[in-house]
Amino acid sequence: MVTRRHDPERRDRIIDAALAVIAEGGVAGTSHRRVADRAGVPLGSMTYHFTNMDELLREAFTRFATRLSERFAARIEAAADLDALAEAVVHLVHADLSAGPNDLVLTLELYTLAARQPAFRQITHDWMRRSRQALERLVDARTAQELDALIEGLFIHISLDPTPRSRAVTRDAVRRILSL
To answer: Which band of pLDDT confidence, cut at 50, 70 and 90, is reported for residue 97?
Structure first.
């Protein structure tokens, strides 16, 4: 009789390993074998915990988007007024959203996957909804939508542009949207 080793964290390790593999080689370079190797689990564990690669990718990107949403919401919720919100957004753009070394790559991989496969779009829609809800605590829905788009765009530009962007320029853009 073969006994199975009880490993309640195995599924979580697989999801975290999938994010690490995606960050290294993109969605296209992600395979069951690479994820299993990274997670330190037998290859058979992959199909035990996930019916296919799409399910694993959905779980992994949902975890990633939730983690960034929580970081975003915590920063925004600490703002008591519009001036504090402007400062919170500057900090989000310049520090919080790229706190993890792979956050930019994972964000862009998720956007690309969502653009190509509607089944993944729900993850990005939920992410945007959570961001806007956090912002709507201090601003109306239209302003929240505009500010959310600015935040995402600035995060990508700041992450990819070789010329550093000053916090003052970001602050000015945010204050314009907030009509401050």
So the answer is: confident
CA distances to 41, 76, 89, 150, 170 from 164, in Å: 41, 24, 17, 17, 11
The model's pTM is 0.90
Write down the pLDDT at residue 87: 97
Question: Which residue, 18, 13, 104, is CA-closest to 61?
Answer: 18
Identify the residue whose tokens are 């703002």.
79
DSSP 8-state secondary structure symbol assigned to residue 97: G
Tell me the CB-side half-sphere exposure of residue 37, using CA atoms within 13 A. Answer: 6
Closest by CA to 54, choosing from 69, 72, 32, 74, is 32
Predicted confidence (pLDDT) at residue 2 exceeds the cutoff of 60: no
Q: Which domains does the chain have, with CATH numbers?
A: 10-177 (1.10.357.10)
